[in-house]
Amino acid sequence: MYRWRSMTHEERTKVVHWRSRLGRPLHSPPHFGSGQRHYLITAACFEHEAHIGYSTDRMNAFTVALLSTLQENSISVAAWVVLPNHYHALVCATSPMPLLKALGKLHGSTSFYWNGEEQCRGRKVWCNTAETVIKSPDHYHATLKYIHHNPVKHRYLGEWSDWPWSSAQEIIQALGKDECERQWQLYPIDSYGADWDDAEY
User: Fold this and answer.
1) C-alpha–C-alpha distance, residues 82 and 125, integer Å
2) Torsions phi, psi of 50, nearest 5?
3) Phi/psi of residue 161, each to 5°?
4) Which helix (H) or strand (E) holds 2?
5) Tens digits of per-residue pLDDT, 142-197?
6) 43: which strand partners?
7) Cβ contact 86:29 at 8 Å
8) Does an H or E element contain 13, and which?
9) What Cα–Cα distance (Å) separates residue 113 from each residue in 8, 11, 21, 52, 138?
10) What is the pLDDT of residues 93-134, one digit of tens each?
């Protein structure tokens, strides 16, 4: 992955699919107290409309573009999920500002392209991106679980490991599903992130 910045879009797409097939994680373990910080990055479509989920092709293309942006502007990506109307990512960075700026550009370019595709020029597609500093190892692991369980929370499916637009399979390949479930029993998320990405919010 050291060649990521010099790869073409097509090469990046192939690498993402290849790493997913082999279970190669796109993340590294947390190192608290190293001078680096972990952040939960969250962005939702305006009024929670399912602009990302317009089609499977759009979900796939946006996932590749998002991962490219995350990889280019953070030290590592611990977890991520893309849903039809929002996304979350757990990243490690020295500062969130370059990543937030890059995500703003991604939102601008996707808004322009999607509005043209749907003949909706001038439509607002995205809300602002928010970042939350991860404060402890417990907070980190709860966030990891929250991200991977997000499709279940929003009732897209019943099993967190089945969602194709997330790092779930990478985590399973790295730790094993039983170990994931065992660890996550320690980090309940019943009230974690309440109303963050609900349509009523």
Assistant:
1) 15
2) -85, 60
3) -75, -10
4) none
5) 999 999 999 999 999 999 999 999 999 999 998 898 998 888 888 888 767 665 56
6) 87
7) no
8) helix 9-22
9) 19, 21, 29, 12, 39
10) 999 999 999 999 999 999 999 999 999 999 999 998 999 999
Q: How far apart are CA 159 and CA 176, in angstroms?
A: 15
Q: Report the run of H or E that residue 3 belongs to, with start and end.
A: none
| DSSP SS3 for 14 | helix
Q: How many CB atoms neighbour CB 36 within 10 A?
A: 15
DSSP string, 133-199: E--SHHHHHHHHHHHHHHHHHTTS-S-GGG-SSBSHHHHHHHH-HHHHHHHHTTS--SSTTTTSS-T
For residue 104, give both structure tokens. Answer: 């703003």
